[in-house]
Amino acid sequence: MKRFQLIIPLLVVVISVLCFAPTAWAFCGFYVAKADAKLYNKASQVIIARDGDRTVLTMANDFQGEVKDFAMVVPVPTVLQKEQVRVAQPKIVERLDAFSAPRLVEYFDSDPCTPTVYESVMPQAAPSPTARQGSRRDSDASLGVTVEARFNVGEYDIVILSAKESGGLETWLNRNGYKIPRGAKQLLNPYIRSSMKFFVAKVNLDKFEQSGYQFLRPLQISYQSPKFILPIRLGMINATTEQDLIVYILSPKGEAEITNYRTVKIPTDANIPIFVKNEFSDFYKSMFQTSYTKEDKKVAFLEYAWDMSNCDPCSADPLNPEELKQAGVFWLDDNSANIPNSPNFRRPFPNSNVFITRLHIRYTRDKFPEDPTFQETSNRQLFQGRYVLQHPFTGEINCPSGREYQRSLPKRFEQEAQTLAKLTNWNIQDIRQKMKLSVGNLTNSWWQNFLLWLKL
Fold first, then answer.
1. Domain residue ranges of the chain, discontinuous segments joined by +
2. What are the pLDDT digits (tens) for 241-262?
3. CA–CA separation, 311 vs 322, rounded Å?
4. 44, 246 contact by CB (below 8 A)
5. Span between the terminal Cα atoms of the chain, in Å
6. How far apart are CA 17 and CA 118, in angstroms?
7. Can you tell me whether residue 122 is helix, strand or coil?
């Protein structure tokens, strides 16, 4: 069974929205579809909740294969104890993905012969393991490896290691049944030089079978360190192609940034032809690849930056306080008004003090030779990847302004075609052909435009 599938292109939701709003918030419209992590066959997802030097890191495994072959080796800045490790629910990653995914929205032109009446309506969100000890200790010491801690969490056997040299660590892992590929030595060495520890996990098959889960659940670790990095280099050992990484950073301050690579905003607020409604998955993947290539394949893309207390348009409900805590947010006030099922509970709550940054990194060993390093900022400017379908008015038109509106449509459609071709590198003639099917007789010939002009 394939774990990842292309997103269903039509997730039709919500009510019609017309609103008065300042520019930064003027996103009202119909939410149609989203470009979530399921679009990519090899997409790792990581949640980082960070405040000061305290971090809660949630790692969603995209491992495909027999669980007995699973091995995770994650460099960490400190020795972790059992109380600092827990198993998280996959749903929390799905919720963050749905809330922050780039989205397709649509608008419908009003009758150009009728004065527009604006009505403020609030949008309705879419419904959104154990090794033997004893005699091995002397052997471990000879390899320069120290077992700092050993415990079980859920279906995982966890070992925390420190090492003096990468060759000894690689040998230890292989001897102890961790099926790591060849070539790990080179990538492990920089972490050892930095005095990092190693969080090592494999699946306890008996406990996994008892759990009843079909897929491995995310692991969540908590630690305190001034280092704000995400170790991705070890994930390149297995890589035969480019890897996609979606990082959700939750902060009480504002947007998070990468300091050792450029961060580029994904193209947004583009009007594109309405046939894309049925091809949004292909559109977004092509657009992302085009942008990725244009930026020389060594940048991180900002796909979303928003206060968690609201959304516009909503592709999913904002996370409630209980869900945010599951995602690792540890700084929320203990307020009864924010407790689900309490009489005073408000959704969404007005002062969530949680800002989400969604970064999309596509990486290879040559383009991302260093682990990305992050920093918190106080920037709370809102941003989202958003793509607009503007449906033309199709009713009867019998006024001068209406005929002028009709005359303007061909130019608008051509601009949408040009925009789509530029974003995706798709063939412009193919785009124009598809648009004829979408807009029908609204594309006027030269003589129709001439007759319209005579009637004005």
1. 23-61+80-128+221-390, 392-456
2. 788 999 999 999 999 999 999 9
3. 18
4. yes
5. 61
6. 9
7. coil
